[in-house]
Specification:
The protein has 71 residues and is an alpha+beta fold. It contains three helices and three strands; from the N terminus they run βααββα.
Length: 71
C-alpha cells in the first residue's frame, strides 16, 4: 500500500481544505507575508502545502491584544 504525498504547491482552495480553514484565511496569511505564493500556468495563485501545514498551529485565534471591542 503506497502513501500518497501531498502536492508541493496547492491552490488557495486546496490549502484551505488541507487545514480546515476558509479560503479567506489563507488569503489573510498571504497578505500578512506568512505564506509565499506563485502563479501557475493557468494564472491561479498557489502556496506551498508544507508552509500551510507548518503555519496553521502557530496562528492565534481572536482579536490581537490592544485592539478594543466596539461598544
Amino acid at each position: 500500500m503506497s502513501t500518497a504525498q501531498p502536492k508541493e504547491w496547492v491552490t488557495v482552495k486546496e490549502a484551505a481544505l488541507l487545514v480546515g480553514k476558509a479560503p479567506r484565511t489563507i488569503y489573510e496569511w498571504i497578505e500578512n507575508d506568512r505564506l509565499a505564493t506563485r502563479l501557475n500556468s493557468d494564472g491561479v495563485t498557489e502556496v506551498l502545502s508544507k508552509a500551510v501545514i507548518r503555519i496553521e498551529p502557530t496562528v492565534r485565534r481572536g482579536r490581537p491584544r490592544g485592539i478594543p471591542t466596539r461598544r
